[in-house]
Design brief:
The structure is a homodimer.
Chain A: H1 6-12, H2 18-24, E1 32-34, E2 40-42, H3 46-49, E3 57-63, H4 73-86, E4 91-95, H5 100-104, E5 112-113, E6 116-119, H6 121-125, H7 131-151, E7 158-163, E8 167-169, E9 179-181, E10 192-194, E11 196-198, H8 203-210, H9 214-223, E12 225-229, E13 234-236, H10 243-250, E14 257-261, E15 266-269, H11 284-293, E16 296-300, H12 305-320, E17 326-331, H13 333-339, H14 352-372, E18 377-382, H15 389-401, E19 405-409, H16 411-414, H17 420-430, H18 446-458, E20 462-465, H19 467-478, E21 486-489, E22 509-512, E23 514-518, E24 523-527, E25 547-548, E26 554-555
Parallel strand pairs in A: 3-16, 3-17, 4-15, 4-16, 8-11, 17-18, 18-19, 20-22, 21-24
Antiparallel strand pairs in A: 1-2, 2-14, 5-6, 6-14, 7-12, 9-10, 12-13, 14-15, 23-24, 25-26
Helix pairs in contact in A: 4-17, 7-8, 7-10, 9-10, 13-14, 14-15
Chain lengths: 558, 558
């Protein structure tokens, strides 16, 4: 039997008009705006209106350390929401929006897969409701205002060699990583080194996701540091009188987007900050709204629990004043084999030894979630066709011997039906009392915050600083940013800062290469090694296979 | 009495839900999609469905040669549509979408003014329904695919010094006019000279506006020439297998946008190609749909009748197989004074001599419209507060002595009421038989086409070619493009190619500096002098005055 592709499954499913979904949620007609028949934007003011309403349970979906084999966090999240609905619970998703870069590159979209998808997948994966375009243009207006200010006399004394604000494009375009701009004479700007990031890496993306309302949004935009003046002091977006226009550009983008799963479970898809140089979670507004509308709000955080979940907790939950009630840790047989040292092309062979070698990675995540974050956790073993019963049994036994719930998740193949066991486990866990805790306090020194993350979450010894980072540390303290939370930018493939140290490495230090302030978003980015903020396209980009027929139907998206 | 600003008038007016407008137009529910409560997109397939329906009259609004004093074409167009509605005619507008560049720069939006506006003005002027973002990202995907192809081995042998395809951004950003990209080593692309245009200048914008349907759109995208290979032969978007993905990105953007005037007259606002290096009219689809839905479709073309109207007729009408039934030529006392040599700050003084000096400019436009295009014309004298009765009378007499209808247009101050006289004149003229004619035949040689435009429309002697242009002319003939129409890129301020030759110059040649093929859009761009395709921001950009309050209400847009 031919297995249908994601877009085939998605387009063969009958969606409900989003109006019907909104009615089911008891939304008033003036609380949302339609964007076509199957997308809507919920007004951000709704949150304030519902301030007295009790919050539903918040479920965080995270994963073991990612491998090239993939883990299926979004698919599991979507399946879980549908599974909860199937057992009679009011469930709602709060997920990230996909970036166009991966859609045309290699990774494909970010709307789940198989029978656990959010739809309309082709619209969500292309422009959706324009949020990323709004963020991109706001980012680039600020960039234009900076160079324009210098061009027209530079009253603020901006040092053109110390501009930290880059332009962005929602595209994998390596050609733009390093450019020289403002060439060919004074009338065409000021010649300087420059470069592009992908839009999801813009600080404005992080700001949008961390703002509880439009006033906070404008305030954060105002505080963006765009670079430094000739005395070394920060120059802000506010100094350029930019925050009003930027907010105007973002006034629709701040409203969370409502869509549905294949099973008609409501889903808010909103914001998608880069999980390395930003915190990698969907917007605070979407998560909070989901908690108001549903008894179970399902959200996810980028990469593994060491990166995404830590930042979810220490940055997003703290700024939003919310906390998760239970955690789902997604693992796959294939990923565990890779953590056990098996190469990608050998993954289809039964290999219990490799799984045993890889399980310490799972364990380190479990220990962090339970003992550091203080939260109940269930392992969702995301089933692939190639998994054998004995391999699955091995992982189950391991979890049980570690006093951890474990269920098989068959969301991809069976949708809601394949997620009932997970849903039941989640309901049970979320009703337990928990011991939620941040990893560090904001009043801790920057060094202490970093050390706590490394020791408590990564299982390492501590941190070392490059000369550059040490200088930046002193500078951040001088400028009064010592009370900001930390946004770790570390490889997702290892608990350490070395990609090759898979599994659960011990006895390592994390070297902080650089410390940067995102004063608008409100966190200090700690870079460990170099972080790629502009991907490239592969030799045969996915775009080559995408087509549209005369009726406007798209094929080749995955 | 304080005169309210455009945005004050716009936001104080009660709009009808766009659904009601659609119902009034007898649109089926599945013929359009809502984008919020006051915007909709009409499915491009509607045109095919109505192929047997009789077309309404097509009215072209154009103007005398623009001056810094402004002429008010959009305001007059909106007023005319409302005026037609007021006298009981089914009228509909087909206008261009504004670019974000001028909105944050100096010029402001492009939604009319005073009591003759299309609304919601702040949404139309900001992201609207995302068409320009879609065009920008399609443009930039193609750019990324080019450099990516070279990076991965360059099978097509693209000469990196002969890449003609530029990246775009919807922003006035002089800093990006000339850049060097692909710096810092092989892994980061191929170092080459590069540069950005503003999004409206993208060939994809022109393509979208010149496509009758989605199949034509894809076909035109496939034919885009992105540069030349090492043998000097063109390399196309089709060679990069890009047309499917580009079409996917544009599949919503091709659907015309429905909004309303302050008086609830339906308006299609769709596409906005740069009026110099492209043809400067809204989309064929919008214009044709307006002709199906209404008895009078009002559209406009960029700049004066020498540029916009000529390209409207020779490019757009020809490709769309439509023709206008009457022309409105907008003139103002202030602009006529400037053509008579008065500086901008002296415009408020009564100066009949200057007007008499400026009137030959008006006359040259009239002669072209009547004798070359063969169309009936009415002069709409767009009234400003500072105009005196004797000045207005002078222009009226001049028109009448030239056997031309003339009416006072008070659209800005009085909306529909101020446009009834114009509406009545237009109805009368549009019902006359006319002698419509293109300026040249497609089978004319490129030299002959250019010469005919210069002699018949500009009133000049003929054309001369730069050495470069002459070489390009031979190359275009060799490549088989000799049957394409011409898209003149000339200063809008003069009939000649010299900005300073205001009024109605005689005895001049037009020097063709360069000839470029836009093989996708389907025309040859004839550049006369240098054309700016990336504006800059002024010392105090309009963005500084834009703000948003906590309810999301925008102020400072104009």
């Amino acid at each position: 039997m031919k297995i249908p592709t994601d877009i085939e499954i998605a387009t063969e499913t009958t969606m409900l008009p989003i109006k019907n979904i909104a009615e089911k949620m008891e939304l008033q007609e003036d609380s949302y705006e339609l964007y076509g028949k199957y997308k809507a934007k919920i007004n951000s003011h709704e949150l304030k209106k519902m301030s007295n309403k009790k919050n539903g349970k918040l479920i965080l979906v995270t994963a073991i350390s990612p491998t090239p084999a993939g883990e299926g966090k979004t698919t599991t999240s979507v399946g879980l929401a549908d599974g909860l609905a199937k057992i009679g619970k009011r469930a709602m998703l709060a997920l990230r929006e996909p970036s166009l870069g991966p859609v045309f590159g290699m990774k494909g979209g970010a709307t789940g897969g198989g029978y656990a998808q959010v739809v309309p997948m082709e619209e969500i994966n292309l422009h959706f409701t324009g949020d990323f375009h709004a963020i991109g243009v706001a980012n680039n207006l600020l960039a234009a205002l900076i160079d324009n200010h210098i061009h027209h006399g530079n009253i603020l004394n901006i040092d053109s060699q110390k501009i930290t604000w880059k332009r962005v494009v929602d595209m994998n375009d390596r050609q733009l990583r390093h450019i020289v701009s403002g060439l060919q004479g004074k009338v065409n700007g000021v010649t300087r080194e420059d470069g592009y990031d992908i839009t999801v890496a813009s600080e404005i993306m992080a700001i949008l996701c961390l703002s509880n309302n439009i006033v906070e949004l404008k305030d954060k935009l105002r505080q963006i540091i765009i670079g430094y003046n000739s005395s070394g002091d920060p120059v802000t977006a506010g100094d350029l009188k930019a925050e009003g226009a930027l907010t105007a550009l973002l006034k629709e983008a701040i409203n969370p987007n409502l869509v549905q799963t294949l099973n008609h479970t409501p889903a808010l898809i909103h914001g998608g900050p880069f999980a390395n140089i930003a915190h990698g979670c969907n917007s605070i507004l979407a998560t909070k709204l989901a908690m108001k509308y549903a008894d179970f709000a399902i959200t996810e955080a980028g990469f593994g629990s060491d990166l995404g979940a830590e930042k979810f907790i220490d940055i997003k939950c703290r700024m939003a004043d919310i906390q998760p009630d239970a955690v789902v840790l997604v693992a796959t047989i294939r990923a565990l084999k890779m953590h056990g040292g098996v190469s990608k092309k050998e993954l289809n062979k039964v290999n219990k030894d490799a799984i045993l070698e890889g399980l310490p990675n799972l364990k380190q995540h479990l220990v962090t979630i339970k003992e550091v974050y203080g939260l109940p956790v269930v392992v969702a073993l995301n089933k692939f066709e190639t998994d054998t019963a004995e391999e699955l049994e091995l992982v189950k036994e391991y979890c049980l011997s570690n006093q951890t719930e474990v269920v098989l998740s068959e969301a991809w193949e069976k949708g809601a039906d394949g997620s009932v066991a997970l849903a039941e486990s989640v309901v049970r866990l979320a009703n337990q009392t928990n011991d939620f805790s941040y990893v560090y306090d904001l009043t801790d020194s920057i060094e202490d915050k970093l050390t706590k993350v490394v020791q408590k979450v990564y299982g390492g010894n501590g941190v070392t600083f490059s000369k550059k980072a040490y200088k930046e540390l002193n500078e951040l303290n001088r400028l009064g940013f010592s009370n900001y939370p930390i946004c770790m930018a570390k490889t997702q493939f290892s608990f350490s800062d070395q990609v090759s140290l898979i599994g659960a490495p011990k006895d390592f230090d994390i070297n902080i290469a650089s410390l940067k302030i995102s004063a608008g978003a409100g966190f200090i980015v700690a870079l460990t090694g170099s972080v790629m903020t502009m991907p490239g396209l592969p030799k045969h980009p996915a775009s080559e296979g995408i087509d549209v027929n005369e009726d406007g139907d798209i094929t080749g998206l995955f």
